[in-house]
Design a protein that fits this description.
By secondary structure, this protein is an alpha/beta fold. Helices cover 47% and strands 17% of the residues. The strands form three sheets. It has a twelve-stranded mixed sheet with strand order 1-15-14-16-13-10-9-2-5-8-7-6, sandwiched between helices. Strand 7 and strand 8 form a beta hairpin. The longest helix has 27 residues. The radius of gyration is 25 Å and the shape is globular. The model has no long low-confidence stretch (mean pLDDT 92).
């Protein structure tokens, strides 16, 4: 490796200005910069390494995992051997399922892996590690565990953290011995405390195997501004300082990735997965998607009757009386939960149904009523361009940067333990959208070719529930017409069109979808 000339650019407060400063870097530093970009990009996308992914089990994360599994199954590589037969080598991924109170993310991810691979896993660590060679799922850490003010883990929280470290190390041993891979790239979420804990407390053989880290959605690098994400705000300054010190000690780097810097600007899955209201049945097992459909239909009903309450100035009791007249509870009882609670129809909540964000959410749910667990968002799609799933042609570069987490400024700088994943010159949001759509179209094609789902048929009980939901919502929206502001009425008409002719409605009513 050549000796790199150190450099520092001007402090910047937005992504577009930062990218512009990179393009204007003095000629004497360009060779050093290009070397860093090339080396860093190759490392975080190297398919010969073990890649660990800390992940939740919301819809965007499950689709990212589905893509990883598809890549593992369709892109194994033949490696010649001296004096022996060659061997086929697959990508190697460990999925660390974040624990959440009231939700079993580990179980959801295992169900997804089994759905796509059509294989049962081998349990380890009392069932908290499931091996689906060469994919391993690990029950991870619960970030809702409380810590003292100084942030140290104590008591049961400490025991939980130590147990997760042991489980991850077990998974590494399983894959490392099986595939003879000895380098690690860790893809972390927005809260870095457990990553710091792992790097401090794991065995030296694993710590020293780290070559890079990516951190998803801790920061949002918008074209015009830089901010800390809501989850990223859980980090304390000392957590970020400790991460920086550890990276420097290990002589590795961390790349900050997020959807804003990758120009993925739409927050709804319908935009990225063609015919999402139909093909979710191929991508996800019914044990997962039925719960999201139930929540989605519940939300649509609540939204439509909030609009009615705002348009006709109805009280909560009057709204519920009208709702119960128009939706047969026996038919839809397992799908209507939040929409029958009077506290969801306060005057302010009813008026909020006319906001642009609420109308957008309802529009997309009317086309495909799969409500994400944590609301709209595609944060995990930022990971599609790194790790084992990254394509041969890269459209983003890991630019070395110094980051001031207090003033939310950054500048191009080397040496630095941090990188920011930024678009190459000429990249646009339309190109990023088209690539993502193409990516999931290929995944769906592979799943259908392998007959993972032989027949995508909506369950009769779900069809009946949709018929009830649809009828009640259309009645409520028709009552609203002429009583709403013009711009709201335009969007309501668009949503009404999806209720009557969207992908999900066509799927349930057996009408032609692919027109």
């Amino acid at each position: 490796m050549s000796t790199r000339a150190p450099f520092k650019g001007p402090w910047i407060k937005s992504l577009d200005a930062f990218v512009d400063s990179i393009r204007k870097i003095p000629l004497k530093f360009k060779a050093s910069l290009e070397e860093i970009l090339d080396e860093s990009s190759k490392i975080i996308c190297d398919r010969n390494y073990i890649h660990l992914w800390e992940t939740d089990a919301d819809l965007d994360s499950l689709l990212h995992i589905a893509y990883l599994i598809d890549q593992t199954q369709t892109t194994s590589r033949y490696i010649p051997q001296i004096g022996a037969n060659g061997k086929s080598v697959s990508d190697c991924n460990i999925l660390i399922a974040q624990e959440e109170t009231g939700r079993d993310n580990f179980k959801r991810i295992c169900e997804l892996v089994e759905h796509i691979t059509q294989k049962s896993g081998n349990p380890h660590s009392d069932g908290h590690v499931m091996a689906y060679e060469p994919i391993v799922v690990v029950r991870g850490f619960n970030y809702t565990n409380k810590c003292p003010i100084d942030g140290t883990y104590i008591g049961s929280t400490l025991k939980d953290a130590e147990a997760v470290v042991t489980r991850i190390n077990s998974a590494l041993l399983i894959l490392g011995s099986m595939l003879q891979k000895d380098k690690i790239v860790w893809h972390h979420g927005p809260v870095v405390k457990f990553l710091n804990f792992y790097l401090k407390h794991t065995a030296p053989q694993f710590r020293n195997a780290f070559v890079a880290v990516t951190i998803t959605s801790l920061m949002e690098f918008g074209l015009k501004s830089i901010s800390i994400s809501e989850k990223g705000k859980k980090n304390r300054s000392c957590d970020l300082e400790q991460l920086s010190e550890t990276l420097n000690t290990l002589k590795i780097f961390a790349v900050f990735i997020d959807t804003s810097s990758q120009l993925l600007n739409n927050q709804y899955l319908n935009s990225y997965v063609y015919w999402w209201g139909y093909y979710h049945q191929a991508l996800l097992p019914s044990t997962i998607y039925l719960n999201h459909i139930a929540s989605g239909m519940d939300h649509i009903v609540m939204h439509c009757f909030r609009l009615l309450g705002a348009a006709e100035k109805k009280s909560a009791s009057a709204i519920l009386e009208a709702l119960k007249k128009h939706i047969p509870y026996r038919t839809a009882r397992s799908f209507v939960k939040e929409c029958i609670k009077p506290e969801n129809y306060t005057r302010d909540l009813c008026l909020s149904a006319g906001s642009a964000s609420a109308l957008d959410t309802a529009f997309y749910l009317a086309d495909a009523p799969l409500l994400p667990l944590h609301g709209p968002g595609i944060q995990s799609f930022a990971r599609l361009t790194v790790g084992t799933g990254a394509g041969k042609e890269q459209h983003y570069i890991p630019t070395p940067a110094e980051i001031d987490f207090t003033t939310l400024k950054l500048r191009a700088a080397s040496p630095s333990p941090f990188r920011v994943w930024v678009p190459k010159q000429g990249e646009t949001d339309k190109k990023a959208l088209a690539r993502t759509q193409d990516l999931f179209t290929k995944v769906i094609g592979h799943l259908l070719y392998k007959h993972v789902v032989k027949e995508m048929e909506v369950h009769p009980r779900v069809k009946d529930a949709w018929e009830a939901v649809r009828g009640a919502c259309l009645w409520a929206l028709d009552r609203c017409m002429g009583k709403m502001p013009g711009e709201v009425e335009v969007k309501v008409k668009e949503m009404r069109g999806k209720l009557e002719g969207g992908v999900w409605d066509a799927n349930c009513r057996k009408r032609e979808i692919f027109k």
